[in-house]
Amino acid sequence: MKKGLLLFLLICLSGAAFANPVIIDPIGSTAFVVVLGSAMVVEASIIAILLLFFDMRIGPVFAALFAGNLALYFIVFLPLLDAAPSLWIPETVIVAIEGTFIKIISFYDTFQMDSFKSLKWKYAFIISAVGNIVSYYVGAVMNT
Potential cystine with 65: which of 44, 77, 110, 136 (Cβ 3.0-4.6 Å)? Predict the structure, then answer.
């Protein structure tokens, strides 16, 4: 019952958003927080699930990705978005940084299961791109 109510509130609040998190002003907007938070959770979840194929631990990976994505959004993405003439430039930079972040965390035992398989750079970047594409569409769908 509580999960259903939380989901209902999340959908209702996100329906009040009038723009994608890329465009909306982040200061003082509840809808922005709901849409951005939902997109970040979905992105971190998708990436963590994909990294299960490389025998990485889902809990620590999810936590690291969520915190890393949140920091990247405010520290790198928003300033780049203001400076760049196109959305493709900040998105490409974020995918590259996040792919590097995924590769780096794959070196640490905290994020590895016992049967960990080495993660190649190309897979880190592909997984990063998939996660970012999905999070973009989650933000866009929640705004319609």
Answer: 44
This prediction has a pTM of: 0.76
Q: Quick check: 110 and 63 in contact, CB under 8 A?
A: no
Q: What is the pLDDT of residues 9-42, one digit of tens each?
A: 444 444 444 334 554 455 556 777 778 888 889 9
In this structure, what token pair is assigned to residue 120?
A: 């190649």
Regions of the chain with pLDDT less than 70: 1-29, 143-144
d(C-alpha 38, C-alpha 10), whole Å: 9
Nearest residue to 106 via CA among 74, 128, 133: 128
Phi-psi region of 23 (alpha: psi -120 to 50; beta: other; left: phi over 0): alpha
Q: Tokens 């998939």 map to which residue?
A: 130
CA distances from 127 to 6, 7, 28, 45, 74 (A): 29, 27, 32, 11, 21
Nearest-angstrom CA–CA distance, 64 and 104: 11
Question: Residue 112's beta-bridge partner residues?
Answer: 56
